[in-house]
Amino acid sequence: MNRVSVDSEDNLLIGGCKAIDLVEKYQTPLITYDVGMIRKTIRSLKQVFDEASLPYAISYASKAFATIAMYQVIKEERIHIDVVSGGELYTAMEANFPMEDVSFHGNNKSLEELKMALDLNVGEIVVDNFNELATLTQLAKERQQKVSIILRLTPGVSAHTHAYIQTGQSDSKFGFDIDSGQALDALKIALASEFLIVDGVHIHIGSQIFEEAGFELAIKKLLKTLANWRTLLNFTAKIINLGGGFGIKYTDKDDPKDPAELLKSLLDIVKVTLNQYDLPNASIWIEPGRSIVGPAGYTLYTVGTQKRVAGLKPYVTVDGGMGDNIRPALYQAEYTAVKANNVNAAVAEEVRLAGKYCESGDILIENQPMPLLRQGDVVAVLATGAYGYSMASNYNRNPRPAVVFVENQRAKLVVKRETYADLIKLDLPYKN
Ligand code: LLP
């Protein structure tokens, strides 16, 4: 286990603080982030762009983890965000995030959401489909407002990842399909509008991708399309958004390229292909979510009951589970856990780290080597920073955990633990 920091007594450190101290202060289940690690990843991506001497924007895909504190960190790092709902947009607004650095995504934005985005003057609306294009054209005209848009295109490339998180294949609910000519039709409609300004194009082929090959195919397809569009319509994209999807390490089986390294290779492909088609330089945008926050997140749980049957793998149960991390149940996602006060302890057995929810599928880790654990021990599940809290629920009416940011040995509560009172806050009696 060399992915985590420990002190001289083998305690897990998060942002320089002992995990067990955080637990003492904030209880469990507790979601913690090493903020320094988030910043480091962002800076490493920036450096790759700077070295490539390309105009760029890094847009944090905030669906991975969106809270006021997170938007504040992103703002401090001076990168963009993408939002996919009025709720994310509202949170960003409350964090005073600069609206010109916001892109608004989504395959079914409501009229209210579109109006909200126009009221706030978000930087780019990423238009996904013909209905949205029609609504937006109408809205922009009614309001006599110029609206900058990016067209989301579907390049017809499938990424090697779980089917639920593939998005680039032609048969996808997202985007204008390139192969069938939809994308070109969309461009013609958008260019015909007096109020829509088509700044560029967008692709996103999926998430948790390790291989360069899918990206390469998609980039080549996209740039070839742009070369055609230049010939046909004299259209030039100012922005080429390559989406997100860089994979991260969850277990020792995973061997992803470092996101900065992967980005470097992708930019090389972009440069060569732009040249090949004699296309002018555009601003290259990326939208990473998971790779920015995933590795920086640690979920801390307290061990409760255990069930042991001779010949079967033990169930060791913790005080959270699918309500704070649905990914194992939803995608068979795998994680790694460690004992927080003895990270490198000798392995005694392989256990199933089970959650507390009333569902057999609520197993956080199917096969985790562990020392013997006792009630009250604290375990940390690693790399839970992306799509954990953001997909959390109140299933079984369990309150959602607190979230703590840790940086330079300082911890700060950034999302309060829900209370039982919070759980019934929206309930109304049927009978008085
Ligand atoms: N851009 C677009 C248009 C996207 O749809 C996504 C993710 C991203 C960027 C960011 O992708 P990332 O860098 O995080 O891979 N809940 C799933 C992941 C869903 C991803 C949805 N879109 C999971 O837990 O694995």
TrEMBL record:
Substrate binds at residues 290, 327, 331, 359, 387. It comes from Periweissella beninensis. The gene is lysA. GO terms for molecular function: diaminopimelate decarboxylase activity. Its cofactor is pyridoxal 5'-phosphate. This is Diaminopimelate decarboxylase. Pfam families: Orn_Arg_deC_N (PF02784). The keyword Amino-acid biosynthesis applies. PANTHER family: DIAMINOPIMELATE DECARBOXYLASE, GROUP IV DECARBOXYLASE. The lineage of its organism: Bacteria, Bacillati, Bacillota, Bacilli, Lactobacillales. Its EC number is 4.1.1.20.
